[in-house]
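Bumping with the actual sequence this time:
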Amino acid sequence: MMRRLLHIALLPAVLLNAAPSPVRAEEAGALVYIGTHGGPGPGEGLFMARLDQGTGALTGPSFAARIERPTWQASDPGRAVLYSVSEMGNDGKTQAVIHSFLIDPSTGGLTPLGHADSGGGGATHLAYEARSQTLFVANYGGGQVSAIPVLADGLLAGVRSVQVDAGSGPHRRQKGPHAHAVVVDPGGNFLLVPDLGADRVFLYRFDAATRLLSPASPASEALPPGSGPRHLVFSPDGQFAFLNTELSGEIHTYRWDAREGRLTPLSHTAIDPPDSGADRNSSEVAVSGDGRFLYASSRASDSLVVYAIDRPSGALREVQRVPAGGHSPWSFAIDPSGRWMLVANEASDTVVQFAVDAASGRLTGTGNALTVPKPVSFAFYPPRDAAR
């Protein structure tokens, strides 16, 4: 109890003013936490809504917590805890902060548990590894990648291990390393880090017993200069990895060797047609729960693209291309039921919903939308892997 009180006492005062959600307890469905580019002013920060996974009805949004630039969140599959970045320090002068909150499942309200330094500047992405109870952080500002143990009550123990990416590229945004995502491989033995600045996917071995990271061999997989790796997802069976490149607007497909920790390039696909006339700017990538479909977004053309995945080869075949329902689709997420997709249109201040057809993978706009200032990310509670 003393430790919990100490952590709460150390929280910035502005966080303690976070208002609980007014969503009624009797409303059914998943909680949706919406990260934004806003804060820490009044009414800016982290928002929440509730999604009825049967009907698709959206309730909200309501203000959840006042955090400066809460651009990425992760929910804990084993307990009612939400983790959020505060993306500060991209200038390299300060460290970013990671916050943990206790979730009230009946209302969605958040109670601050504590916070810890992120191990670098500009924390932009999180991944939670449940078996070792470790939170990984990608720090965009300086390319630092960190591992933070999570204690039994959801408190953050402080940074246990830090590795630093290295490299640069030809684009004006590639003067140094910029770790843009952290992805734990399905076996829990490796951490993959797409780095926008270095044009590489860095690979680190992870020791679950010590929570230490160390460079794998090979230590990275190179991409063409100026690609700008952003996010990476695995197929559910762990055979393939799909990477989107922000600056070149492509999907790169790899075969994954789980024993050696090795990526073997298979193919790459342009998200926008060559004659589209738009600059390349890919933002998000996701795989359906059954592994049959891949989804990608383009901020250049304000569109979503659906691909069918060939199971034996990992090859992609375009199935559908639809408008994102707004401008600059910064991110999207498929809810735990697999029936609904939410799209964060950052430049339009809107969250737009699509229905997902399980048989065809196709998306259909539902007409449901929420007004949220500068939305950029989503986290669901309970998450899809809560039953593991």
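The tokens above came from a reply further down the thread. Confidence is low (pLDDT under 50) at residues 1-27.
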